[in-house]
Amino acid sequence: MTTHSDAARPLRIGLAGAGPWARLTHAPALAAHPRAVLSGVWARRPEAADALAAGHGTASYTGDAGFDELLAVSDAVAFAVPPDVQAPLAARAADAGCHLLLDKPVATTVAGARETADAAARARVASVVFCTLRFAPGTAGWIAEQAAAGGWFTARASWIGALFAPGTSSEFASPWRREKGGLWDVGPHALSVLIPVLGDVTEVVAASGPADTTHLLLRHTSGASSTVTLALDAPPGAAGTEVEFRGEHGVTALPPGGGDAAAAFRAAVDALAESARTGVAHPCDVRFGLRLTEILARAGDLGARARP
User: Fold this and answer.
1) Following DSSP, what letter does each residue of 90-151 receive, concatenated?
2) Class at the top of the CATH hierarchy for domain 4-134+261-285
3) Rounded Cα gap, residues 223 and 208, in angstroms
4) Cβ(113)–Cβ(87) under 8 Å?
5) Alpha-carbon distance values, 96 to 21, 67, 71, 78, 205 (Å)
6) What are the pLDDT digits (tens) for 134-193?
7) Cα separation of 102 and 131, whole Å?
8) Nearest alpha carbon to residue 104 among 177, 210, 173, 23
9) Which tens digit of pLDDT belongs to each residue from 177-206?
10) pTM of the predicted model, to two decimals?
11) Residue 34's CB: how many other CB atoms inside 10 A?
12) How high is the mean pLDDT of the chain?
């Protein structure tokens, strides 16, 4: 675990995962970060771990024992694996004294997310959940400004993708996204913008739409309401992301600039390093990740009951 005495030393961050996100975002950002050292790459497939590690001049690990070896040479672990693979690995990492840079959602079960949050609390390690828009240079400041402004009456958010549309092909079209749909993949993004501005969710209504579409109606602690539409299996022409707040100061919409995942990930590394150095929890930490899972699980239960 990082302490105040060794805070000047770069954070040794191991990477769990060697898929598209790990290859395109996590590994390059960690290898180039001035406050971090990529201490190794772990993956379930040895060939994937070997290739990614070799490309960034670090060691590769695989298997159960290999994950423990990665923990032994790391101050923190960044995760780029499916959520229900992530949760038990993250709990092990926390128990070993490693800080956590988690992907969203932390888990798709409340029990899994709570296990991770409890492990982080026991070990008193820092944690950050990589909700992209909370860290992207073009959107993080805007979210903070709307939260400071207050006076919001209502909001709407749409996160509509065409990841599984006929005729499309993407290496991000992973089995867990096919199984869980837009609610679990892009739902955390929507909530990570709405909750800091409008407050925690107190009521959830959910209804299903075409394909994997989920519609949410939310009530927040501020008294404001919001509507959310989430999908990964829409026609390409329907895809897009929008967030709009309406209140006493007028209407404001999410600016462009949330698509730079590499810059956002570098900012998330900075946030983790600062939290590890100071001991001050980040607003987007594992406890926030647990809350996201609780809300989405409730929405999933309601949406399932509403399906014909």
Assistant:
1) HHHHHHTT-EEEEESSS-SSHHHHHHHHHHHHHHT--EEEE-GGGT-TTTHHHHHHHHHH--
2) alpha beta
3) 25
4) yes
5) 25, 11, 7, 14, 39
6) 999 989 999 999 999 999 999 999 999 998 877 776 777 789 999 999 999 999 999 999
7) 9
8) 177
9) 999 999 999 999 999 999 999 999 999 999
10) 0.94
11) 8
12) 94
Angle at 295 between CA 290 and CA 296, to 5 degrees: 95
In the chain, where are the structural domains located?
4-134+261-285, 140-254
Residue 256 dihedral angles phi and psi, to the nearest 5°: -65, 165
Q: Kindly state the tokens that stand for 22.
A: 């790990």
H or E segment to which residue 204 belongs = strand 201-208
β-partners of residue 278 are none
Element (DSSP H or E) covering residue 229: strand 225-231
DSSP 8-state code for residue 233: B
The structure tokens listed for 254 are 């999410």
3-state SS string for 257-284: CCCCHHHHHHHHHHHHHHHHHHCCCCCC
**Fold topology of 140-254:** Dihydrodipicolinate Reductase; domain 2 (3.30.360)
DSSP state of 164: T
Tell me which residue of 160, 165, 15, 137 sits closest to 80, measured CA to CA.
Answer: 15
Which residue type is seen at 15? L
Token duo for residue 298:
């409730």
Spatial CB neighbours of 91, under 8 Å, sequence gap ≥ 6: 115, 116, 118, 119
State the Cα torsion 112-117-123-126 to the nearest 10°: 130
Q: How far is CA 95 from CA 60, 122, 273, 303, in A?
A: 22, 8, 18, 35
Asked if 218 contacts 292 with a C-beta cutoff of 8 angstroms, the reply is no
Q: How far apart are CA 153 and CA 166, in angstroms?
A: 39
Written as six digits, the tokens of 158 are 């749409």
Query: What's the chain's length in residues?
Result: 308
Strands 76-79 and 225-231: unpaired
Give the three-class secondary structure for 176: helix
3-state secondary structure of 60: strand
